[in-house]
Design goal:
By secondary structure, this protein is an all-alpha fold. It folds into 2 domains: 140 residues, Serine Threonine Protein Phosphatase 5, Tetratricopeptide repeat; 54 residues.
């Protein structure tokens, strides 16, 4: 009887696991693994599946991006071939097909390829003096290329298109956006363009914009000098 009681106690103790303060860390780990083997195996399978899925996604994404970039290069060649005849009647069908292909690629891709496709579409519209279309596609290019150099360049070009269309309010908004991009080499040019447009309606605001050029782009000597000359002229007119 005593032996049976001892064996029963040992079985109960084994099922209960190591008591606090008893056994080694390895014993505790072994006990945990024994009692959670199925969960551990399932978790490991899930991790492997996720890792494989991520690798497959990266490979597919890279392949699609490389294909899209090749398509952009082809569109660029087609655009350059049509560029000087883009407004000719006998080129209308080819231009329409080219623009459709550009927009399809812009919608169906991402990153550089999409941004460049929309930029090409904007260039076609600009060649046709379709400034509203050019502004729209430049802004789509900016949205697709917001984390690359095409972003602020496209915003600036959208401002130029809006100005050409006579939409001064939109042009000012785009120029202001471009000027705020520290990574944009043409930021000071956008700032000066803001001042130039504001001269038509708000002299005080134009002067303030020009003053910001001297304070924020002090190394841009040419633009600083131009801004200061405009400040002098506007100040004299205001007297």
């Amino acid at each position: 009887m005593a032996q049976n009681s001892t064996e029963a106690a040992a079985i109960v103790a084994a099922k209960a696991g190591p008591r606090k303060g008893e056994g080694s860390i390895s014993d505790a780990i072994n006990y945990f693994i024994r009692n959670n083997r199925k969960k551990i195996i399932i978790a490991a399978i899930v991790v492997v599946v996720i890792a494989l899925g991520f690798i497959a996604w990266v490979l597919i994404r890279d392949a699609l991006e490389n294909r899209a970039i090749a398509q952009v290069e082809d569109l660029t060649v087609r655009y350059e071939a049509l560029r000087f005849d883009i407004n000719e009647a006998d080129s209308a069908e080819d231009v329409a097909a080219l623009l459709t292909d550009m927009l399809d690629l812009g919608k169906g891709s991402f990153g550089y390829a999409a941004a460049r496709a929309y930029a090409l579409a904007a260039a076609v519209c600009a060649d046709q003096k379709n400034w509203a279309g050019a502004e729209n596609y430049w802004m789509l290019s900016a949205a697709k290329g917001k984390n690359m150099y095409l972003g602020p360049v496209s915003i600036y070009n959208a401002a130029v298109a809006a100005e050409e269309a006579g939409n001064i309010e939109a042009a000012l908004e785009h120029y202001r956006d471009a000027a705020s991009r520290a990574e944009f080499p043409g930021a000071v040019r956008a700032q000066f363009a803001m001042g130039r447009l504001l001269e038509q309606s708000d002299t005080a605001a134009a002067i303030e914009v020009y003053r910001q050029i001297a304070s924020e782009w002090s190394t841009e000597t040419v633009w600083v000098n131009l801004a200061q000359s405009r400040i002098i002229i506007l100040s004299l007119k205001a007297e």
